[in-house]
Amino acid sequence: MHIAICDDNIADRKQLERLLQRESDKLHGSREPYYIDSYGNPEAVMSSPTLYKAFFIDMTASEKNGYEITQDLLHTGVTVPIILCISTINYREYDLPGNCYFLQKPICVNDLTDMLDIVLKTNDAVKVPQIEIRTEKDTVYLHEKDIMYIATEKHLLKIHLTNGTVLETMDSFENFYDSISHFPCFLPVSYKAIVNVAYISHTSFFSVYAKNGRKFFLHPNFRKYVHYMFAEYQRTSTQ
Questions:
Q1: CATH value at residue 81
Q2: Pairing assessment for the beta strands 100-104 and 82-86 based on DSSP bridges
Q3: What is the pLDDT of residue 229?
Q4: Cα 84 to Cα 101: distance, rounded to the nearest angstrom
Q5: In a 3-state reduction of DSSP, which class is residue 45?
Q6: Residue 56: pLDDT above 80?
Q7: How far from the centroid of its chain's Cα atoms is residue 40's Cα?
């Protein structure tokens, strides 16, 4: 299991590395060992956030503090445990989601063991697969429920989210559909649009209507499939 440490206090960072390594040694081959990557700056930890199953963070003297780094991680779609280690900043005072936890410095071994139990139980739970969206400036990770529809508009592929946000990607329609085709909720309604079946209000012979009022042309090649999948969704969602 890969764990990231992000701490600009080198002594604290090295101490946590040692404690985590000792906890890993206690596993005695009963589980995957802990692979620990240790960083002293936020840019490094943000380079590949989806690699990690847990983050231990305390940044107090950098351009971004631990709370701001946590916000960046959450923005990219990180849902694994983020453990904020409290030294000079009391992270408990911030409004943070349920996957954020707290450890007081200096870190007590028993407290760390308890926290790692939470991490292991969280990662043993069923994972909700994520969808990677690469925009011109960022990489965003979403769940299928976050996307209402995808459409080619003015030669750009635009992902319309349920919260009203619109993301633009330089990916082609075909490549993007290939990347999400294993999600049965996404129905191609034409060669220019994909609609999440959960957000279809109704269909007709020639059209599909999203719940926000958007109307899509229903191509004959997809008509039978879309009508069948929408009927199946309505049947199963009411059971």
A1: 3.40.50.2300
A2: parallel
A3: 94
A4: 6
A5: helix
A6: yes
A7: 23
